[in-house]
Fold these 4 entries.
Entry 1:
Amino acid sequence: MVPVTFLTLTLVSDRAIGVEPPDSISVFQQDYCLDCHQGPDAEAGLDLETLSADLDDQEAFARWVRVVDRVRDGEMPPEDYGAADPDDAKRFLKQASRWLADHQTRQDDSLGRVRGRRLTNRQLEKTLQDLLVIRTPLAPLMSGEPRLHGYVGIADAQPMSPYQLQTHLDVVDVALDAAFRKVSRTEPLLERQWDAAGIARKNPRRRCREPEMRQGRAVVWSCNMPFYGRMEATRVPRSGWYDIRFTASAVKPPSEGGVWCTVRRGECVSNSPLMTWIGSFEAESEPRTLEYRAWIPKGEKLEIRPNDSTLKRARFAGGQVGTGEGEPQNVPGLALSELSMREVQPAGSAADTAAVLFGDLAIAKHGRDGVVSFQVDPSATRQQLSDQLVRFAQLAFRRDIEPDRLVGFQQMLSQQLDEGVPAVDALRATYRAVLCSPRFLYFSEPVGRLDDFAIASRLSYFLCQSMPDQELLEAARRGQLHNPQTLIRQAQRLLDTPRGRSFMSDFADQWLELDQITDTEPDRRRFSEFDPIVQDAMLAETRAFLNQLLKDNAPVQQIVAADFTFLNSRLARYYGIDDVAGDQLRLVHLPDDSVRGGLMAHGSVLKVTANGTDTSPVLRGVWLCDRILGTPIPPPPSNVPAIEPDTRGSTSIREMLIRHEEDPNCAGCHRKIDAAGFALESFDASGQFRTRYERGNSRNKGPAVDPSGTLPGGDEFDDFTEFRHLVSHEDHRLAENLADHWITYGTGQRVRFADRARVESIVQRTADSQYAINDLLMAVITSPLFLEK
């Protein structure tokens, strides 16, 4: 096998090669490749005689990269053909790699590595919220985003259609309406409080789905009935953020543990069945007070109920519940003794929003009964209004801009005033134009080295998914962000802010596809212990785990082989882990023989890599190779049919996949895929550990699971634990993979062939700390790949 270092060394050369491939490539192909890869029946559909040398053809470029990679990894020529002469292979890799890398580098010199890139939906929502000091949800108003390489922020996959432009305009209008309404508001924030009778059914003889009064408390029983536990009294008269506070206790709890319940919101009627998650808790015999904060749209109400799928469920006839009907059934329940809701403004006060919209301009309000008009003090000059417009535009565009570059907006403001439009309305209309400008929606990144303001934006959107704060902008204004130590200090500071503390969670939503966890629903007949409470705890486990690794600057191998995780009592019971009490997530040290250490055994990962009914070693294997193990799998060759190779006589998934390794068209990739896929067969589609496959609706009564396999390097393993141990020692590859994904997520461009040497340099900088995760993140942030367009 040709060492990887040969490829790395070739990429640092700056000597340009012509467009045509060097002669050494043709010689190598003639000597070692054309016997198999020639003509219409060429193996793997790769006919090297007709493979285009036009590297502007993306498909041709990808094929050339695949050729280089397979020679580098020793996969080509195949073992049964005979190994290539090492000197010939070195020469081929050196020349071919330089040819490919120099082509991309020449393109970057003129166009930049990253093409025009705009804000994602989440970035747009958070930017408008932070800019206007509001927290109105905006993402639900936006159209879906295409994913490329698993990410929504890739520049090459960000179209802008007339429909999307109209959607953007609508979102801007909603955001501005919320901001101006917040400033003009005169009515007090809503505050309500109820005792148990206030949230229970009003007519004791009426059958309904509201709580019933029992010994002075409002009680809801464990039941499958939709919307049971809804409380009509909590219906909100206007959309807003609300602090919810209630005192709860368990009724007839199980012998071990309490009664796990959910808090959700919705209209709670059959023609609007969707319920939105707020939180979950474990009610115990002793009452305790719980608090949540949630956005609740106008007309929606709360539903609080037992929702643990392992609890015994009551049965009620006719789809409604009568008073006392739950009592004889001896099922667990939830009792509420009081509940309050208080409207809040979590982003900041109205004065904070007014400071953004009007600056030092004096504002006069007029109105009553919640209906108000307000105006800028008539003594304000046009120059003062124009100065305020410039301040707003500089905030929105995330950089200092000379006023003469904003002439178009200033003329629009003047025209509005000339037409007699009130100053408030004229400013709002001009702000609307500013927020629809490409300078707001797109990243302003010059070709080559980024300027300080572009660095500030790239860093802030990478770590916080939103615009730079004032301290970061001030550092950019002073020209300090080209200093690596200053950049690291700013990055660490951002990670410690409330916005930055969501970095690993936001990243994992795309890296691990956690934002798609609700796309499938495990079959409840086969996976009866799975429920929304478990799913929420799985997500919380993964997010807390990743945050802890970053906080501890842990070695990268802990991503796959940590000796701890985060659990509450419900998830611990689901995993079969003892001695974990309470509904608060806490760090739990795992015994040496536990299968749950590391991301590969997290229920969230196992669920998103299954379809809700069964598992596929191929799908899980490909996902694991690409997302965690750092061995991306290319698409199958075009001449390989979608069906399996000859599987006559196969009796198991394993035997079917072994056929792949016997097919030369499939073997190269399946040696990598199948090992990971077989190891994860130890976990079912709902994330629980198993030793046997399911048969029908019966658990653990099918054929035995065989999680053994052989890694591409020849190491064998008997089970998932041994597999995890082996891959944890591939820490250089794990670090390289994490750096790859951070660069893709943070720059809007995946790591390409010409970037490989730079990634290798990033990873090598952290080798002495065992590729510590925070060190690796800082190495990415201070790298040329991150600091250049």
Entry 2:
Amino acid sequence: MSCDRFFSRDLSYLYIKTARASHPSESPSLGVFRPNPLPLSQNLSRLSKKLNMQSSVLGFPRIGKNRELKKATEAYWSGKIKQEELLATAKAIRAEHWKLQKAQGVDIVASNDFSFYDHVMDHSFMFNAIPTRYQNLGLSPLDVYFAMGRGRQEATVDVPSQEMVKWFDSNYHFMRPEVSDSTDFKLNSTKPVDEFNEAKAAGINTRPVLLGPLTFLHLAKATKDSKVKPIALLSKLVPVYVELIGKLVAAGAEWIQVDEPILVLDLPTEILEGFKPAYEAIGKAGAKIMLATYFGALKNNVEVLKGLPVAGIHADLVRSPQNLDAVLPILSKEQVFSAGVVSGRNIWKTNFQKAIALVEKAVAALGKERVIVASSSSILHIPHTLESETQIKPEIKRWFAFATEKCAELAVIAKAVKEGPAAVRAELDANAADVKARAESPITNVKAVRDRQAAVTPAMHERAAPFETRIAAQQEILKLPLFPTTTIGSFPQTKEIRVTRNKFTKGLITEADYQTFIEKEIKSVVDFQEEVGLDVLVHGEPERNDMVQYFGEQMEGFVFTLNGWVQSYGSRCVRPPIIVGDVSRPAPMTVKESKYAQSVTKKPMKGMLTAPITILRWSFPRDDVSDSVQAQQIALALRDEVQDLEAAGIRVIQCDEPALREGLPLRTEDWAEYLKWAIDAFRLMTAGVKNETQIHSHFCYSDFNDIFDSILRLDADVISIENSKSDMKLNNVLSQYTSCIGPGLFDIHSPRVPPVTEFKERIDALLKHIPKERLWINPDCGLKTRAWPETKADLENMVAATRQAREQYA
């Protein structure tokens, strides 16, 4: 069976009906476009009689209750299952999720919120924004799609992945679209239509979700060979949206959700001016458009929404309750308001009293028939369900609501407003009791932690001497060569490591046996690094499950889940810790392993720590105290760890802060305050060491140009930074960094191994911007997710290129 026929016949997942990405001569059947003949006001009038206070979810987690999608996708990549089995798994997950939401009482369920990799890349593929390097490869359409996300290297194919960046200020990643003036936007698949039909066949009428054209283009970048601004392509892209929406209308879709989250950002004039013509064209396609914004405050951008021919507007009232007062005055007499009162970003139970008050305020202005109770954003960002979390203490578990439970919350809020509090009295009383119990818990206010915070002084944020003095003292001890080579910390987590750690966690092996195993793994990794020829070594982190979870498990104030998985990118899932109370460190966390690793080598061994902002951002933080308070508590706990590592003889300590840029507020006017306390937290953690101790930090997968001056203020001795997937775009700012720096030379999220010549070319390019005495050589990030063969090949090629560079530049 051909790929085309399979996709057409099984509507479970139609990325593309033709193999145009590989066979440009073929063209799809476009179907018949039938615009809705009724004007918008009549459509809305009919609709208002049907609504009467509904609930909606803007999107649901994709990976499955037990990460079924991750397992199937990785099995497909490794050749263990066929494409048909992967597609069948995806179809089963979607059906289960649609039915689950309905069972919890959600009235309006989203479709096209599913993705194999990320929803932004789905749109790049769907609209034919496929860079030329992925075309004519002789691959199936699905494999072309995966090559865009993770790269591909085999006998006849060698392509890197697209650039990966963070989705606004979340820990979700997307592949940045690439466009040029020659991009031929056209409908390359009918995925949203197929998934709508799939749900309809299962008896569920969904609201399809599309990423809006302004957001798509604002997040895109021009290809290397093009100088066009992506927004200049709006007039070419919008007709494809109109065509797609027409197909959805023909399939029976009444409402379509179009996400424009960029409206919570500071936007250039050309973006703001693009909304009116774009939505005037889209408005003629015959669907009722719910234009959705989320993650922040609309502020002045709300004026762009005024008068747009859309049937409804959604706003996030969790992160910005002020959006209610901003949006209500600009709504027409017919438009619907979707009130995002249940958080799609955090796991705390919704405070029903506060949420209902916001909804009732909207109802007072608009009437029940024009208000929808909704999640603030897609609930993609939270775990599937609390059902399996049997190990969390009941008195704490009662504070949480995961995705399934959030759906039930929406139904309760909608019913409370529609029918009155008496209709859900038991639910309201239980919720109030849980909110009160959390506020009064001794876990949430620990006197010793608060007293230590009160005693922090400005001097505790300052190193003893400037960088020039420190680096001289460090070099005298470390005696590093030109272009020191190192890695970022982790090495491949093999199946044997995971199985053994799991046995220890379950009590199936003794602590002594586990420690013996860990030391064997550390020794093996150290021996490997010496054999390859690295200069500053790491212990490989075989004892660590996750760079945040590992530390949270050893600090007070955190709880953990058994199955609280959240998608980070592609098949990569994480289990974020939950910060439930004030944070402290009862005992050393990493000293034993680092000290052992240093004992088996004469080369410098790095102590490896995760820094405060990353622990905060990659956990579910508290919502009852400020982020700055939580960051300072974590910094004080880690300050103790840094000083213990130094006392144990570790002379290089890496404090990773990859989430620093991610944590920036979405509005530039709020940056200064954030950067002040965020940088202070890092300095509080690291400033207590001697001049001879070298402090490293690491940053990955974010746009750093705007905050490079703040990275300077970290006062680290060496930083390593993701660079390989960004088209070396940071080169111009790297010259501003006055300490040592290691821009990443290869992408650790791809199985592709660059040849020695490519490594050498990157080193040569970097030396045009960075003095040779300050350049370090390293990967983009840790090697945990990679297999050993490619890890060995990557590092051997990296070291070989470095030796060539030493000979040339010595």
Entry 3:
Amino acid sequence: MKLLLRLFLIFSFQINAQQFLIKGKVIDKNDNHSISYTNIRVEGTHYGTSSTYEGLFQLRLEKGNYKLIVSNIGYISDTINVKLNSDEFLEIKLQPVPINLSEITVLPGENPALEIIKRVIEEKHKRNEKINTYIFSAYTKGLIKTVRDFSSTGTQVGITVGDSSSDSSKLKITGIIENESRGYFKKPNFYKDEIIARKQSANTPSTINIFTGGRLIQNFYTDDIRFFNRPLVSPIADNAIEYYDYLIEDTLAMDKQNVFKIKFEPLKKTNPGFVGTLYISDKTYNLIKLETGLNDPANPGRIFNKINIIQQFRIFDDIVMPIDYRLSLEGNLMGLYKFGFELNSIFFDYQINNNIDEDFFDRTVIKVKNDADKKDSTYWRNIQTIPNTEEEIAAYKRIDSLEAIEKTFWDNFSFLATAISVNKNFSVYGPLAIYSFNVVEGHTLNFGGNAIQLFDKRLNANLDLSYSFGDKKFKQSFSTNYFLGEYRTTNFSFSAYNKITDLFTESIHYNKLTSTLTSLFGKYDFRNYYYTKGFSFSLGGLVFPILNLGVGFFNRTDNSAINNTDFSFFNRKKAYSINQSIFETKINAITTSFQFDFRKFIEDGYFKRRIDDTNGFITFGGSAIFSNKKILKSNLDFEIYRANINGSFPIVASASSRFSIVVIKSSNAIPFQMLYALPGNIESGSQSFTFRTLRAGEIFGDNVLMLSLENNLNDELFRLLGLSFLIEKQMNLSLHFNAALIETSNKSKNILPLNILSKGICEFKKPFAEIGFGIGQQLFPFKVEFTWKLNYKGKNNFVVGINTPIL
């Protein structure tokens, strides 16, 4: 009997809590065309939604009687009575407001629009003073659009075979993400978003589905507006009147209230900003809707040919809050690759000025709930959503069908790939990685592969195998790491190797392909090599939100390598430089490390990921190596202590600066191959955070103090100087400065290779410094840099180099 009673109570609760779906479409009563972005709210609640571009909407409500208030600018608001005891479809017809509006109040002045905007800004401040906290719910949908379908491995699939009507240049939906989130705010600047549920098309990983209703989506009632990492002045920002030109274009009505329709654009055509329309309510001077886009100077590289933004606002508890956010953009990269993206988010169920404990706002600004990816179809049928269009439903089916097709190795094959995916977890070397060449190994064939995110995204592994025809050696290297903890913040790593490696590899910022090409075509190998074999393991992880600690051990035996080839396609009479010998030894050492990182996190459901703060950030870390003859049976006694400080800070507008400081202090004799070399460059090349006037491996030592400063000024200096030609061409300017003190202790000099001692050791016992600038165009991934030595002049007092990540 008790069991029956319990089952009855459970059944009764489910009946009472059952929700029904209200679907609907809002149309114009006169001509029956759909009305986009109409507000639908439930009277007496903070619950509601807004219609799509096609005028469609849906609401989930429990059984009962409701009044739906439907409103849009230019139409007479309507109240719809709904008796809900089953799913309903409503066709709501709104009557346009008659053209003969009542007289509106226009304040005196040369431009009445400016007076209105001043009042809007005043009301904005009053609004902000009223807000201490708020909580809201959000539903967000993102659409990725490309010409061709893509798979989860990144492979393009192509237009559907047999579809003769398909346009090969037409954008179509090729990826979909949806999520439900809850957002929190507390003065002065505490933010947090929790993703409660998320789903996406089969070709899109859940880890990128972190678009929420909070910090990643703009709110035009704040002054913190950024697009493409550039801060932009909001049209109702405190300094907006000095930045934008305003014009009253029309007067409309909403909810029996007059509405000003005001056009705006930057006063200076070269200033980056918004261009669009504001809808301001008369009497209250609230911003109730914004339709805008970006002008050319705010469009990076002008790759976007369409950028549309729509946001609406409504009063909750006498406070204006955003109720949606719509972003639509389309672009064409250099005329070669068309793409598009849409983001639609609706905000509802506001709770304003409720108590939120400050401890709730930890260092995580976006948190994906543990069960967010486990919500079933029943759950998704019962939450607030933006209705899926027929195109979106078809896209889900098409993408799922494409992902279900088993892909072969050759489906993913590309001659320009360094790695080829076998599936989402395994990849093997691609054509660009199979072959390499250097002066020691000669022609080398490389084989290997990677395994990533196995066992619930916890295990990664890498295997490298190679055979070189110059030194006739077979080499192997294996490494793996396993992540522990709920958010995989602890990492155990292990590696075993018998391989060739670069001398001062940390200081060479160029890839392996670059040195292969400079050798084959220029007979110039800027690297030196040595053989090493051994193993290492380490354990490290997050012990506090701002602190990582690590400990490890390595055993390695290092031996010198010699030139084994003189081959080159060109410059055959030219001789390669002799490969540098090293201090041959066996080293057993314990390693320790720490890092203080004050940046905040995104918890994407699997990992904690640090995010850079646009207001600047700083990290401080260090490491130590202890080699000991007696305890660890190493061939040498020495210690190496190292500290690193890295950070970024804004300068003005979109300009920012990054810096890096390295401090190294050593004791006893350090083997040559473990000395630190100032990061240098190759001829006609340069890389960020390197000394442009120094060559790779040219200056080294065991006691170091180094500063690197990289300033990305974008076009801000050109704007200050009024250089409109450079602004129009979207040219960017950067500045760089490097300085260093570096020397080698006498004990380390005693074990240096003889040829190094015979040439003389170059040290900077007084600060060495260089300074320069670079200029490039936003669209292209390279810039030309010019650098001068400030002292220690001799060779390379002035150098010109191409800085590009391609090298």
Entry 4:
Amino acid sequence: MIGTSFNEGWQARPKVNPFAELSGPSVPFRPVTLPHDALIGQRRTAPDGQVTMEGGAGAYFPGGVFEYRKVFPVPEGYRGKRIFIEFEGVYRDATVFINGTYAGQRPFGYSHFHIDADRYLRFGQDNEIRVEARSHRDSRWYTGAGIYRDTWLFVGDVVRIQPDGPRISTPDVDRERAVVEVVTTVENDSIEIRTVEVVTEIRSASGAVVATDTAELTVLPGEPASARQRLYVREPSLWGPDTPALYDCDVTLKDGSGEVDRAAAVFGVRTLQLDPEHGLRLNGRTVELRGACVHHDNGVLGAATFARAEERRVEILKAAGFNAIRMSHHPMSKAMLDACDRLGMLVVDEAFDVWTSGKSEFDYSLSFPEWWERDIEAMVAKDFNHPSVILYSIGNEIPETGSPAGAAWGRRLADTVRSLDPTRYVTNAVNGLLAVLSELGALGQRAPEQAPDDGAGINTLMSDVGDAMNAISASELVTERTAESFAVLDVAGMNYAEARYALDRGLFPNRIILGTETFPTRIDGNWRLVRQHGHVIGDFTWTGWDYLGEVGIGRPQYLTPGGPKPSPTAPYPYLLAGCGDIDITGHRRPASYYREIVFGLRSEPYIAVRRPEHHGRTFAGSPWAWSDSVSSWSWPGFEGAPVAVEVYSDAHEVELLVNGRSLGRRPVGEEHRFRTEFETVHEPGELLAVAYRDGHETGRGSLRSATTPVRLTAAADRRAIRATGGDLAYVTLTLTDEHGTPHTGADRPVSVEVSGAGVLLGFGSADPSTEERFDATERRTYEGRALAVLRPTARGEIRLTATAPGCEAADVVVTAE
């Protein structure tokens, strides 16, 4: 079945009690175009004026119940057809009504699902579909709400290919040929036995047919049947991160009267191998996973999942040196999977953040026992044809993993995944501390030689969350309690437990480990472990891209004599977690360049300057918090003030010059954690870092102070975009001097006006703490930058005009084709 977009013509509003509307509508519907986040436009407040973990988890956005409706015609010619409506994602507890009648539901907010619609439709008339969605204290991060992913209308005959289409695998591959197995499931809702021809063609990227096969298939009424075809592609182009070659597969059903149905899929040819010596091998070569954990929100767009937004994130993450994404902690969108296939990004797709033990008052644990299997089936059906997907994760930091019952649940989930897709590996992101949380008291009572950190008590361990997680994870208690949960997996996913890497080489010689979640501040040591140990296949930092919610876990904090202790949750109006290598606008922060150097992908030194207003204070940020540094030498008002300059490099030593005056050379490189610091005073002009290896210069990096006057510039990521298909234009607004140097210390409000064939979809900055809204037309820049996102509404030119006090207006034109 081929789907057509069902995104247009919707309306949305907060749901009201129907009894309150007996005298007429009390809350009007407003037009929306899907994908749509119903929560991002709501007013944020601190609950009862207090800072709470629950409020901070969702970025202080309120919960709510929202309803969507759409009126659409159904032609008389559709009578006798099978009609399905697909929702790629509705957050959360979606309930669907067609013409006032209940048609289906889905509690999980991240599964795609189909509504069997034809039985409720009125042919030759207009029909109404309504969707209700709820979001209320049911997650540990910002989820958004509503129909936040694409919707599709599928129309087919009673004999048809299932909506998820053919499933394609490559079980046998060498240089000469690849065996491509295509399994096409056909359904028959007629009352007759039907025999059809399944015609399958495989095309290369150039469009040439490289393999074809025809098979007869008899389908009994009400009993789906599958045609399993083995095709052979000669001299296959292999899919990999550096060469993401893709093939098209077209399947057509035919009978004596002609074509009955058709379906299309994209796939790649590649092999996977796994062992403790070589680690993970892709197409026969070991690949170390340079991983980024990523939440699903799209920053200024909230949870709305537009195809271009997902593609842009993958592009930027790959350019920053990552070769893998772990979708945290839910199944990845179809649009991002497509982008990962095209661009060559490996994927760990994750099923759940909770099983039977809840982490929030109203989370998915309430539905898990009844719905988990259908949601696993949906994830695998979505991922099966995508060569980018190499691992399924069945959970994240599941408390049950430290118990026999939890291990049994893990085996049940892992076996279900394998039964649906035996071509990939299964992991589970286990946090050793949470797995034994109920027994931490017993851990503290153990003999000193059995307790972590030479007998340190739990209170001492908890003074540093990073050391605590590591020490407890390496304890004998965790070894015992998690042994069975790890044994049911192909890859032992470990969150914040690098202390186990070398330990488990001796304790569990067949165990293969993946750092499924690690502190960004420890990447140098973690990456050394990945390189040293064949059984450790990679590292996934928390996080690659900053996100809404879990506010302030990565914010810089400082000790104040007599002041409050550092807190894991920031007060309102904090908005962001603040721990991403890349901020929510797509701008790379200093941690991103440091990581690139650690990975061995950058030879030039990188300079970051700590904010001079905090000079001399004691840093007390969490292990998720990078230093409070900015790649800038523009600090108006701090001329002559002391300042600390960080330089990152893989060289042996680095020299720093301020306006040509040398501050000397300092050792750097791996033995010094790839970083060094210089103390100086701020002098406007130029900072220059020169890297040396064995006395020879290997690279330079510099920063220049911005000069006056301040200019406002507008630059689109692309001058031409598609008018359909979820494409967007991203316009970066920057305050600069005449040479293009960013004015990071001259922030001011910027207003935008959009005209022509598009609308302003979102507008914001990376300010971690603000009451400004993403649906406004004025935002203050942060560190000299803001981001506007444009959505095309028709073919033609879209013009954005930006203005700021003291600056000439800036224009940019994008053509929607």
